[in-house]
Every structure is written in structure tokens, then in C-alpha cells.
Amino acid sequence: MTQKYRAAAQDDLIWHELDSMTLLYHRTSGITHMLADPAPAILEVMEGLSLTAAEIAAQLTARFDIESDIDAENIVIARLEELSGLGLVARVSG
Description:
By secondary structure, the chain is of the alpha+beta class. It has helices at residues 39-46, 53-63, 72-85; strands spanning 4-7, 13-17, 21-26, 31-36, 50-52, 89-92.
């Protein structure tokens, strides 16, 4: 079975855009996180859905001009692991 992920509920997040960073306040933990791309885009794609890294990478590739030689899925997996460590993303069963 392929691993799926779910982002924290949008009601629990307060977003504030800065120049090249996004501040994200997580109400549940009381922590403000500084996120760089592509982490905010990953969270936006996941909004309310349980998705695999491949599904997230496909949506990001469709939304943004991502070069075909870039391994978007492995980049997404690395960011999902980081976001999971911050409590902003959870692994869920398929």
C-alpha cells in the first residue's frame, strides 16, 4: 500500500506571506513556522485530502512549470517528512 498524507486542518492554520517565505501559525501547537517553497504549495494542494507523494507531485507539476528532468516526487517526499516532523502533516492509512 502506498503511503498517504493529510495536512493539518485549514481552520488550524493562519497564513502570512512574506517576500520569499510563508509564516504559518499552527493553532493546535501554538507554534509559528517559517516555510520556504515548495512546502506552502504542498500544504495548499493537500487541503482536506489524503494524498500520496506522487499525487501531490503530479498536482504541483500541473500547477507550476516544473522541468521534466526534476524528480518532483522525491522532493515532495522529503518535504512531507519535514512537515510531518513539525506536526503540520500526518501519515494516514490508505
